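Complex 467.
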Amino acid sequence: MRRLFLLWAACLGCELRPQLAGREVDLSELGKRLRPGFLLGAATSSHQVEGNNSNDWTDWEETSFEDGRPHIEDGSRSGLATDSYSRFEEDLQLLRRLGANAYRFSIEWSRLQPEENLWREEVANRYLQWAIELRQAGIEPMVTVHHFTLPKWVAARGGWESDGTLEHFERFASRLAGRLGSEVDLWCTVNEPNVQAVQGYLLGIWPPGKQSNRDTALVMARLIEAHARAAKAIRAADRQDADHDGKPAMVGLAHHARIFQPATGSALDASVAALTDDFFNETVVRAARTGRIQLSVPGQLDLDKEVPGLLGSFDYLGLNYYTRDHVRADLSDPSFSHQYVPEGRPRNGLGWDIYPEGLYLLLRRFAREGLPIYVTENGIADNGGEQRPTYLAEHLFALERAASEGVDVRGYFHWSLLDNFEWAEGYEPRFGLFRVDFDGPERTRTETQAVDTFRQVARNLGLSPAP
Ligand code: BGC
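Predicted structure with beta-D-glucopyranose bound:
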């Protein structure tokens, strides 16, 4: 029996103190208290794994910033990625080996509709086939409709800055749900509106490379609106209850939330951390609660808009959680803040704070919305694979703790099933439970140490990992 010992840092100023100091995670027990039917799975997204895509991101990968730096830090292109479009059956075996009973993958809009008036039925059939095969293997598919990439023709017309994209997206979601609805019940409309808006429109490090407060707010709002539109379309088109739970479609979105910890006890640090938290963590959740998109950054933006169909459009909230930022007020910065990880904190390969307690805190906080929660992503960039087993166990421990205190958390999807194209960072960071050899054309997959941890938890849940 492997035991992992945890030391939970005290959470200064947190209203909820988990008081888990000194607790040990006993792998032989981990997960046993989770509800029957709990989904334990892994996640990927189309552009990061499929290979040979052609969309707004592939254009971005070909080009550089004004100062000559390539858009992708290591100069790579998504290219063949993990070749998962052709190797789905191989990936399915990986999921079976894990003992997973769920898989979150995304649909590549540009593959289905490379041109406005072209719908490639053979691609729709292939995605449908994946869902059929997953279901036959006892693996519940969760399908993401939009995970950061757009067809080139949509991007050329202004992408998420344009109102017209909402119409196109709604039609796309409707058609997709009509084709896949017989096998898919769990739908994730949009992945991380806040991350896409900030990276693409505030920091300008993702397409379309803008740096504008106004556009950031506009796009964040539009992506939430896109969720509402897609939710309506999916519920209308997916009438088949694939898992026989009485509900043909469960619709939500994947919301990226972080802990913003004030760096000191000063009122200024606290207010700036609260402001950042409100914009980044609360906007989506407030939208679900009120049906309004409300954004306010003093002196920079002020938006308050009721969106038809938004209220009631969430059947669940998806939570993507990775890390915590310390926040110090810095009034010279446009965001008023400086975010950092203090010396001495455990970090992942990208320098992110490893803070499992944050998952517990966010689950407790978002549970107040009264929606079921799925942890739609959680994972670690860990090139050697040594940190991942502990990361996985600690975060599942935090989740189980929240569940045992009454949080209705129904699933956990580890990011990621396998190493993949990590956006602006290219292929350097490795998030996979399975390591991928990006040098060989076979894209050979090899298990990392965390596979054992995952399998143990799967067994604790009564699942049967394949040998
Ligand atoms: C995104 C993934 C990404 C992961 C790790 C999430 O914000 O949804 O696409 O690979 O973080 O950075």
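Residues 1-17 have pLDDT under 50 and may be disordered.
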